Amino acid sequence: MSPFILYSDGKGNIFEDTSLYVVGRSGWDAMPVPEDEWIELPEGGQLYELPGRKGIGIDVKTGEMRLCEKGWAVAAFIPPAHTAFYLAAYESEPNAPTLPLFCYTAVGWDDDKFYVPVVRIEQDIRQECEGFDDKKVKQGVAALRKAYPHNRLVEHLASNCALTYQCPAARNYFMGRWECPIPSSPACNANCVGCISFQPEDEAIVSTQDRLTFKPTAEEIVEYTVPHLESAPYPIVSFGQGCEGEPLLMWKTIREAILEIRKHTQKGSININTNGSDPVAVRALCEAGLNSIRVSTNSARRELYMPYYRPNNYEFEDIIESLKVVREFGGWTSINYFVFPGLTDSVEEYEALRKLIIDTDLRMIQWRNFNIDPDWYLGKVGVHQSGELLGIKQLMELLKEEFPHLKFGYFNPPIERIRGNYESDFAH
Questions:
Q1: What rounded mean pLDDT belongs to the chain?
Q2: Contacts of 61 (CB under 8 A, 6+ apart)
Q3: Distance (Å, rounded) from C-alpha 27 to C-alpha 389?
Q4: What is the rounded distance in angstroms from the CA atom of residue 88 to the CA atom of residue 83?
Q5: φ/ψ (deg, to 5) at 263
Q6: At a CB cut-off of 8 Å and minimum separation 6, what does 347 contact?
Q7: Longest dimension (CA), the chain
Q8: Please, what are the domains in the chain?
Q9: Residue 128: what pLDDT?
């Protein structure tokens, strides 16, 4: 089965072109997608038109690659817990606008269904659309606002995250379950090209949400996280969210909060999502009782990391050191790995990733779809041609074979899974 290509009329209507099979994109190149890599578009997936871009397909009759001359190209947004193998393949016109910060996965149409080249990487259901009940979220917001009337963090999570941006982590918090977000830093020490909470005025794209504007106190953090750890199923509290800067810049406040939380409860897991830029701060947090760390990176190679993160006062080597520090304390380590077909699965990247896993004794890879305009990103990091590629699926298989202990997923695991009950499908 090869699905047919889709195109948009620019008015929100999508059609199939049965003269072309859809292809995928890896790096700069368009290529056929192996038949066994297509699955039906998961619940919660969405379709986007790509203005100023013509889709690329394989002619059904001749087998040659050519452009779809009708309308604009179409891509799919893949819901959480899924990782894409290929990007949407298209050719951009000279004046094509830069695409906003979403993922752009190949998508086709066959037998009345949409298909995408994707794998479900994680069975956890914590961010699935049908799992959210707006009524319960709003009831939770009302109850928790009443319980913590002066807590600026609870108000931020309510008015901005849960109600305005429909943030799944915040909505889960107000539904009293699983992972509770703790935004803690308005500032950042990186200038990521694809930052979702801050973009410079002169950039062609806008940030998808507003950043936290205040520095929370340890008291504010402790006040609402302790009851969550005490009462939620499979509870985690996580510093470092999409609506803030870098939490390690606030490490003293976070350290104070962790010490205080653990005076009140030993339940659940305390996690930090971070760029890993300050191993000294990470050590202080581990001493206070941090259980797990997730370090975000677009690459295991310095030469791709630096032009994307554009760090202030830290080096790529610091993120490696932070992972080592957490393992030294017996903590759980993940990388939040931004998957970009054509870069992530290059032979050089694979070798660098193997080294990172071995050097840091890494526990887990969270395979995240990279939310960025592909052409724009490749230009920003200075990659002008695709090298030798393994394919994302093969990359995953090779790593599984060599590192059987290494977990694949999409979310931070709760302490129950970290302590050995990892494979239990508790979320179902």
A1: 91
A2: 19
A3: 9
A4: 14
A5: -70, -30
A6: 387, 388, 389, 390
A7: 70
A8: 4-120 (no CATH), 129-418 (3.20.20.70)
A9: 59
